[in-house]
């Protein structure tokens, strides 16, 4: 269909289209005038993004969209609607109860029935750019609409606080019992540690262990030094008991031995002189030999005495070494025992620390849950209070008129085309070609048109000219 055909159909059927438009407009405006006026009151609340003073939990600069959706679902829930009914005491109204019996036959509860009724006129819309949520209620009475909007916001605030406080009370009871168990565990661990310290006589295990370790180190150093001395005395004792005992430093440096050896040397020299002059059988020679033999005996005795002292010193050093080694082993065993006792004490002390840490943690959670259970504020606050609207929100006469004009125009055009399809007429040259399948040679002007008058004048002139000829 061309635009010309469309215009031709509208020109031919304009009366029908206009009638449909007027009828639509009249029907819509009649319904608009008959419909009761509805008033919409709007209240709002805001979700606070500041940290919670009890739990120190922050929601950030913008609340999570899922959190906002949850708040919308809460305010549209049956729990909030039924709280509104109870707060307004509508369930106690005899007229309301009578309406409930007529509507439900006495089945269910008045609170549920009224809550579902209120929810149908409730509109909750969260803001896209902020943490504000608008709560609107539509009713015939503007005061009733404002009252219901404010009641829903207040019921929502009470419900949010209740949802926060009730779990906190349950957690508080749970952590209270856990705190008692943790305290009992801590007391048992502390008693066990105190009994162990009292049994072992531990006052300051680390200081005492340091002293014993120092003593162990000192004994070890003494043993090493004494072993060196004992080793030296053993070698000297071996030299003293051998053939070279007379060449020991103690023997050589001894003044008695030195004096005896000097006397022996002088006596030997004297013997040689006297023996050379008097002979071996002379009494002086015999006397000198006896003196020399006596001096040698004295030197040997003194040497044995000196080397015997070296043996005694070696024996004493060996005995001291054995004694010191025994003391060292005893001290080592004592230190090991003290370390074992200290390790056992550390284990018990660690049990006390763990029990104390667990008790502190549970006590902190108990304190937090106790504060939450006593909270009277939540992170949601009322922002604006609904007031009775002055102008009705519906019906909107001007908007309905515009819609009626637009819809009536469409319906009129549609009716014109339906009429044209049921009673098809030739409106344009294209319709002739499409219907008969032949080409159009010319088009006659409409009677009374300017072109028709011009054609008639031209025909008359031709007839006059023909007669004159």
TrEMBL record:
Residues 346-420 form the Tyrosine-protein kinase G-rich domain. GO terms for cellular component: plasma membrane. The chain crosses the membrane at residues 398-418. The gene is epsF. Residues 5-88 form the Polysaccharide chain length determinant N-terminal domain. It is a multi-pass membrane protein. PANTHER family: FERRIC ENTEROBACTIN TRANSPORT PROTEIN FEPE, TYROSINE-PROTEIN KINASE. It is found in: Cell membrane. Residues 257-305 form a coiled coil. Pfam families: GNVR (PF13807), Wzz (PF02706). This is Chain length determinant protein EpsF. GO terms for molecular function: protein tyrosine kinase activity. Keywords: Cell membrane, Coiled coil, Membrane, Transmembrane, Transmembrane helix.
